[in-house]
Specification:
This protein is α/β, with parallel strands linked by helices. The chain has helices at 48-55, 78-88, 104-114, 119-132, 148-160, 178-194, 206-210; strands at 4-17, 20-33, 36-41, 63-68, 71-72, 89-93, 166-170, 198-202, 214-219, 222-223. It contains 7 helices and 10 strands. The strands form 2 sheets. A 6-stranded mixed sheet has the order 6-7-8-3-9-10, with helices on both faces. Helix 3 (104-114) packs across helix 4, helix 3 packs parallel to helix 5 and helix 5 (148-160) packs parallel to helix 6 (178-194).
Length: 225
């Protein structure tokens, strides 16, 4: 039986836009299980980005609870949240945010080095992950010399370097053509099963969303499906 890695309970969040209070999330609840991809889909402004921001522990919800590995985030201080974010959560974005002056392997190793790992060990593990993702011949290629699909695979490798248990993927195929979108999705699906990861995938691609293990549709800050 798949185990909930992430539990979201009645999450609410609002912010001021000028003088108007915008209710971005109005009571969102769901689970994301280990070994599965959970997709979130909905129109622009429905609350998807706000939700991902909160799940990445980058802001505090107005109310509700986020539970990761049976630990309630509300009980953690900022130092503990930062440690949890660095060790347990991997981020993949629509824009890969690779450093163009660094090679593929250097980009992947960077989060581990920043966490305090020996640089040689981090680069060796980066090589191993990139090899698994089919980039063994591009290890020393500078990021801006890679194709769009290759850059996104490097970004996935970077998200995996610290061995997270939760992957937050925000429109990871948004800038890719159909063929590369399929490659990236198949890769995330394989990794979720092989490494028992909980993957949360925000996408506008209905076809990919429907192929996920779980499907969540949002509108106006609520889950509607």
């Amino acid at each position: 039986m798949n185990v909930p890695l992430l539990q979201v309970r009645n999450l609410t969040h609002s912010f001021l836009e000028g003088e108007e209070k915008v209710h971005a999330l109005r009571g969102v609840s769901f689970n994301a299980n280990q070994g599965e991809i959970t997709s979130i889909i909905g129109p622009s402004g429905c609350g998807k980005s706000t939700l991902m921001y909160l799940l990445g522990l980058l802001d505090q919800p107005d109310s509700g609870e986020i539970i990761i590995n049976n630990n309630s985030i509300s009980k953690l201080n900022e130092i503990q949240k930062t440690q949890l974010r660095n060790e347990k959560i991997g981020f993949i974005f629509q824009f890969h945010f690779l450093i163009k002056e660094l090679s593929a392997r250097e980009n992947v190793a960077l989060p581990a080095i920043k966490k305090g790992e020996d640089s040689e060990d981090a680069l060796e593990r980066a090589d191993q992950i990139l090899n698994q993702l089919g980039l063994s011949e591009k290890l020393d290629r500078f990021a801006n010399k890679l194709s769009g699909g290759e850059q996104q695979r490097v970004a996935i490798a970077r998200a995996l370097i610290n061995s997270p248990s939760l992957i937050l993927a925000d429109e990871p195929t948004g800038n890719l053509d159909t063929a590369n979108s399929e490659i990236v999705f198949d890769l995330l699906q394989r990794l979720s099963r092989e490494q028992n990861l909980a993957v949360l995938l925000v996408t506008h691609n209905n076809q990919l969303a429907r192929r996920c293990d779980r499907f969540i549709s949002m509108n106006d800050g609520l889950i509607v499906d």
